[in-house]
């Protein structure tokens, strides 16, 4: 699966939250089906997500790389997939 294409398709057709604060909220309310974290995601966000035992995929790149993969011109530390839409993003196997 091409992760960049899957991310963009999920953003376009699904229910996806971008950013650390939205990630924390979705994890706390048990809405997150998958969380994708940048390699340089703030440790507090990483700890919150792991403590909640959410499905977490470690993105192989920085927050700038993750932002670009999402088609955004700004860095993104966390992407929270609530509904994958027409993408195959939820087929990603958690690796954290």
From TrEMBL:
All residue ranges annotated as the Ribosomal protein eL8/eL30/eS12/Gadd45 domain in the record: 2-90
One GO MF term: RNA binding
SUPFAM superfamilies reported for this sequence: L30e-like
InterPro entries: Ribosomal_eL30-like, Ribosomal_eL30-like_sf, Ribosomal_eL30_CS, Ribosomal_eL8/eL30/eS12/Gad45
Keywords: Ribonucleoprotein, Ribosomal protein
A single GO cellular-component term on record: ribosome
Family: Belongs to the eukaryotic ribosomal protein eL30 family.
UniProt protein name: 50S ribosomal protein L30e
Organism: Marine Group III euryarchaeote
